[in-house]
Model the fold of this input.
Amino acid sequence: MDFAHTADKIFAVILSVLETYGITHRILSIKLDNASANTTSIALFTERNIPQARGYFFHQRCACHIINLVVQSGLKEVSNRIERIRDAISWIGSSNPRFQEFGRHCTLNGLRPRRFQTDMPVRWNSTFLMLKNCLEYDTTISGFYNMKLAESGCPPAQSLTPDDWYVVKIFVEFLQVFYNATVTLSGVYYPTSSQAIDQIVEMFDMLNTYREDDLLGHAVVAMETKFKKYWSEMPFLYALGVIVDPKIKLAGLEYLLEFIGNKLSIDYSDQIIDIRNKLFKVFCIYERRFGGVHTEPSPEPNTQPLPTSWSILKHRKKRQISKFLFFNYTICCIFWCRTE
Done:
């Protein structure tokens, strides 16, 4: 577009294209990047257009982009150790004679010679895969790299240490959940909105586990700050996707939001009320249109492992049943004593 990319200009171009093709009220979604001008243009579009059938406009941020921002804030806290490993594998692979010598060291240690791909720092998942792939070769990489540093007279401070690999190993295990969430929510051949809160709960559970960890505590604090910035207000699209899941429903969503909110000091109560109201309005629209249509369910067996959110809800249900049984047992005992 040959003009200044301001919010007003972007909005005007979008509206012009829609009017030209006569599809102003037939748009399902518009995809934009994360530029602030685009965000403002969407706000203008939302204010000046009324959705058909009393629907809603959603400005839905990309979950995988948010995960990238969350993890990048944690990577900064262990960047020194990651940088040393990145330098080592980059140096080893940058020369064919050097890599051949490294390959002989791998063979002597019973490992298959392998050239490691360096990461692209702006894409955290490439950093994760780089670290994960070279963990098996930690001793061989350190031995070869440190030997070459000593031969060239470099200071010992540049050497790789067992502590570097230990911290990276723990960090890779920690990041596995975030990588799994990125892969799941990047799917294009299946709906992902219904899985978003499940993945958010998985990531939150990992943050909660490592919050007091001596090695990763600072990284977790930085990641939680970014986590709260983007998900302190849960998107309605995610909430609706969970509500229509018969294993969770509205009550399960409320409990999951309360569970996350208590740990991160986030008050979701107003959002829950708003979600209830929007859900009721959507239900009324469907009831008017399809209230007389009934279909028989056709359940299929599910062999996928249960996500953390279901485990949390299952624990809550067991606790409620235990309270119910204890209450009834107490009443029965009192009644029995009175009859005696």
Summary: Residues 71-177 form one domain. The longest helix spans residues 308-339. The CA atoms of residues 47 and 286 lie 25 Å apart. Confidence is low (pLDDT under 50) at residues 329-336.
